[in-house]
Each structure stands twice: as C-alpha cells, then as structure tokens.
From TrEMBL:
Keywords: Cell membrane, Membrane, Transmembrane, Transmembrane helix
Major facilitator superfamily (MFS) profile domain sequence ranges: 21-391
Native source species: Arthrobacter ramosus
Transmembrane segments: 17-35, 55-75, 87-110, 116-134, 146-167, 173-193, 213-234, 254-274, 281-298, 304-326, 338-363, 369-387
PANTHER family: CHLORAMPHENICOL EFFLUX PUMP RV0191, PURINE EFFLUX PUMP PBUE
Protein name per the record: MFS transporter
Record's bilayer topology term: Multi-pass membrane protein
Organism placement in taxonomy: Bacteria, Bacillati, Actinomycetota, Actinomycetes, Micrococcales
Subcellular localization: Cell membrane
Record-linked Pfam families: MFS_1
Cited SUPFAM superfamilies: MFS general substrate transporter
Superkingdom as given in the UniProt entry: Bacteria
Length: 397
C-alpha cells in the first residue's frame, strides 16, 4: 500500500503551489507599485505641503522610475551571490527607509531623494520576483506561479491607488506613506517566516549582460515589451485629457474603475492559461491592445465605445508583466535573473518615454494624437511578436 501511494503523494506535493511564499512576493510587488503611484493620488496635498506646483511634485513619480531603471541591472548583478530572500529583504528595508523619509520630508528636494531610494528598492524587487517565483513552483506550473507573484502590480493600480487617495482625504498624506511603511515592516516578518532563501549564483556561474542579451529571443522580447509599455503609458499618463476629449470628464473615476476590474480579470485569465497557451496569449494581448488604442482614438463617437476600449485595454495590461517575465525566464535559462533585470529596466524606460513623448504630442498635435500614436507604435510591436515564434514566444517551451 505504501509503495503504491508514495509516488502519488510525492506528485501531489510537487504539483502544489506554495501559496504562502507566492503571496509574500505578491505583497512585495503590491507595496512597490503602491509606493510608486501614491503621489498621483495625493498630489494636491503634497504640493500644498511643499509649496510647489503639482507638475513639479508629480515628478516624484518620475524620479522613482529613474531609480528603478538605473539600478535594476547593476544591483541585480552585484547581488547575484546573495540568497534570493535576502535580496527581497534588502528591498523591503529600502522601502521602509524611503517611505519613512518621504513621510517626514521637510522639502520637495528631500522627497526627491527619498523617492529615488524607493525606486532603487523597486528595481531590486522587480528583478527578483519573477525568478524567485519560478524557483518556488514546479516547472509545469511556472507560469501560474509567476502570475500570482506578479499580480500585485494590477491590484495596486486598480485598488491600492484609489485606497491611498481615499486615505489622503481622511488623514494627512504623510500618514498614508507611514501606513505603507507599517505594511512593509509586517511583510519583513512574513518573508522571513514563509519565503525560502534560495542560493544565489556563484561568481563563476554568473552570466554577463552582454552574453544574456545575445541569447536567442531575448532582444525580440525586449523590443516587444518596449513598444507595448511606451504605447500603454501614452494612454495611461494622459487618460484624463482623453476622457475629457470624449466629453465625459466627470466619469474619469468610472473609466479607471473599468480599467482596474478588467486588469484583475486579466490576472485570472493569464494565470489559468499561460502554461498551456503562452504564445496565443501574448499574440492576443498585443493585437487586442492595438485595437483598443484605435478604438480610443475614435471614442469621441461613442461613450460606450470608450468604455469597451478601456476594458479591452485593461484585459491586455493586467497579465502583461507575467507574460513578458515568463517569456524572458524561459528564453534566458541560466541567465534568467539578468533577463528579469533587463525587463525591469526596459519597462521603466518605457514608462518615462511614454510620458515624455505623450507630452510632446499633446502640446504639438492635441490629445487625439496620443491614441493614434499608440496604435502606430503597436504595428511594429505586433511584427516583433510574429517574428518571435521560434525563440521569444514559441508555441511550446
């Protein structure tokens, strides 16, 4: 009896998702994105406290992205030999220090410095979450495990940011950053309790950046990601003016709610099907997003069309990070950590470029040029997806 059941029991153990560890990573990602986006919901209060314009105070988000972009690759390389849990703990300590400093910041310059440190911590988090999740779960469930771990991003965008903005109306904005600090402190305990500390790579086993970027499929993944993120951030940064152009400025919160709900639904869809249909999902997501951008460009024709387009856009965004991180991890193999860091860097560069290019087009050609530009950018992006059939986004791994 024992010899018959033992293999089945072992298989069940292997097939079981380590949810406690995955949710620790989920929460770390949630804290990272919440920290990044909080100033957007607290902008009036922060700008008033610092005696600065909202446009200048809003750059606290930009400086965060810059910190992530410049730190992800060098820090992940420098900390390759660290245990994976130790890297997560270092990032969480960075968030604790940075959010505490932001809460106590006497000037906007001090806040900029604190936000840059928070961005560095985020670079560590995002270059580690995907690889850590991949190590936690059995190979055939790798995509689902990464999906759970990465779900903190859309959840923070759709629920965390509105919650932070609401808290800002109840308590002083500094207390909101203090609350995030408290969550991070509790998360340190959870990580120490439930997250395994997988060994890092030995110095001789470390894959160099120049070697990783030459791996088949990696450059295609990065180019596709760059196109998607720039196009997405064009729309996301200027969704307010776009909604106003459609004549429903008073419905902005409902448009964002629609985007958030669709993004959360996307997490479930991607998590359920990614291990069996990864290529189909990436092709469908990029094509659907292109159509959504086109529909938003035509949304002044119909309010219903705008809501449908935003819902479609949310469906493509919620699981996008999981799709790209999974592709990078599988294509890079032993260089997965370096690939994750490159993906984080490209993602943050795309955020910055989307906002910058969108601002130029908004000033020069009007708000309606933004969704048209996003649609145009998605054309070569779709071509990159098609070209990635063999190595970047194969039908089977």
């Amino acid at each position: 009896m024992t010899s018959t059941l033992a293999p089945q029991t072992q298989s069940a153990v292997r097939d079981k998702l380590p949810l406690a560890g995955l949710f620790a990573l989920f929460t770390a990602g949630f804290v990272s994105v919440l920290t990044e986006t909080l100033p957007a919901g607290l902008l009036p209060q922060m700008s008033s406290a610092f005696g600065q314009s909202e446009s200048l105070t809003g750059q606290t988000i930009t400086i965060y992205a810059v910190g992530s972009a410049v730190s992800a690759i060098p820090l992940s390389t420098a900390m390759t030999r660290w245990g994976r849990r130790n890297v997560v703990l270092a990032a969480l300590i960075g968030f604790i220090l940075a959010n505490t400093a932001t809460a106590l910041a006497p000037t906007i310059g001090f806040a900029f410095g604190a936000r840059f440190v928070a961005g560095i911590a985020a670079g560590l988090i995002w270059s580690n979450i995907g690889g850590h999740a991949a190590r936690l779960v059995p190979g055939k469930l790798q995509g689902r495990g990464i999906a759970i771990a990465m779900a903190g991003t859309p959840v923070a965008l759709s629920l965390g940011l509105p919650a932070g903005a609401f808290l800002g109306t109840v308590v002083d904005w500094r207390w909101v950053f203090g609350i995030v600090t408290a969550i991070s402190v509790l998360l340190v305990g959870w990580v120490l309790w439930k997250l395994p500390n997988f060994e890092g790579q030995a110095l001789g086993d470390r894959v160099k950046l120049k070697d990783a970027i030459m791996l088949r499929g990696i450059r295609t993944i990065l180019w596709t990601l760059a196109g998607f993120v720039v196009a997405h951030n064009l729309l996301y940064t200027y969704i307010g003016p776009l909604v106003a152009h459609a004549g429903i400025a008073d419905q902005l919160q409902w448009v964002l709610f629609t985007f958030g709900v669709a993004s959360i639904l996307s997490i479930w869809i991607i998590g359920t099907f990614i291990d069996r249909h990864h290529r189909k999902l990436i092709v469908a997501s990029m094509a659907l997003f292109a159509l959504a951008a086109l529909a938003i460009a035509l949304s002044d024709v119909s309010t219903l069309l705008l809501y449908v387009a935003v819902a479609a856009w949310g469906l493509t965004f919620g699981g996008a990070t999981t799709l790209f991180l999974t592709a990078g991890s599988r294509a890079a193999g032993a260089a997965a950590d370096v690939a994750q860091a490159m993906i984080v860097t490209v993602f943050n560069i795309g955020i910055a470029l989307g906002g910058l290019i969108g601002g130029i087009f908004l000033a020069g050609f009007g708000v309606i040029s933004i969704p048209w530009l996003a649609f145009i950018i998605m054309i070569p992006t779709l071509i990159w997806v098609a070209l990635g059939k063999t190595h970047a986004f194969p039908a089977k791994f």
